[in-house]
What does this fold into?
Amino acid sequence: MHKLGISVYPEHSTPEKDLAYMKLASSYKFSRLFTCLLSVTKPKEEIIAEFTAFMDEAHDLGYEVSVDTNPEVFAHLGATPMDLKVFADMHVDIVRLDGHFDDFQDMAITHNPYNIKIEFNGSSDTSVDHLLKHGADIQNMTVCHNFYPERYTGLSQKTFTTFNNKWKSLGLRTAAFVSSNNTNTFGPWPVYAGLATCEADRGRPIDFQVRHLLASNSIDDILIGNAYATEEELKMMSEVDPTRLTFRIDLEKNIGPEEMHILYDYPHSGRHDASDYLVRSSRPRTDYRNTNIPVIKVKGKNFKRGDVVVINDNLSHYRGELQIILRELPNDGERNLVGRLNEQELILLSLLEEHPDYLFGFVK
It folds into this structure.
């Protein structure tokens, strides 16, 4: 089950603002919360007192809380990989290791008696497979990618995919960050260009960022890296269908009820015998074997990549099949144009093209 999450940074805000944001996100079913101790420089006693109160408020709202740490944070709080009592006293659910210790300590920390989950850095070639081979407890292990405050430094699609393939092959739960486009957002550092994991997602609409991460089929939990997202952004994220890859489509004006029904009311997936020219969703054909789909004349000689079409009465054996055009092909009168994917959505089409049999659908 996918989870949505937010991030808060108490040292850069007020308890009142953080609590109001946490309550708002909770009302949209957000259930993960990320915060950071890397930039906190207060005395140990103050950190423990303030973060304990913060954790308890978060738990009352149903959040699972992860705290970003490194060996320096451990030293400041008097913790070690063999002794996580201070984190247990603060009621921390997940300790994220932005930096690591050594192989033995990274393995041993997963066996802590408090059952605190240890979250490894998903944007680093961490030897988690080596730790598992040498006794690490996979039940207490998760992976979370970095976010990248500096423009042009986020992960490439290729690097993101390579890392995720490794984590999923090991059976680990994964998380990654999207970024709010609200004004005056912030994170743990004085950099304000957004906090996404993938560089290409920086500045994109937040629902597209979520749909992009889901389209990878390798990210479980999706967290907003910067604070504070708008209520509209929280709502948009909560409305994304996490069960399939989804596209926004620019609809044609003259399509009929048959095309609308096929577009929105079927669980689409392509075929194992994939074509270079089309992603084919054949399920609707069964229902439209004996139901007419009138021919709609389409302007233009050719269909182009990203056009979404439905087979009409001129090819009755395949009538009702929904197709997404991958390569330009002739308009021979057998397909009604339903709509088009814009340039941004074509990025998701490339991911579907790699796995054409994945479930997909369209945002209504």
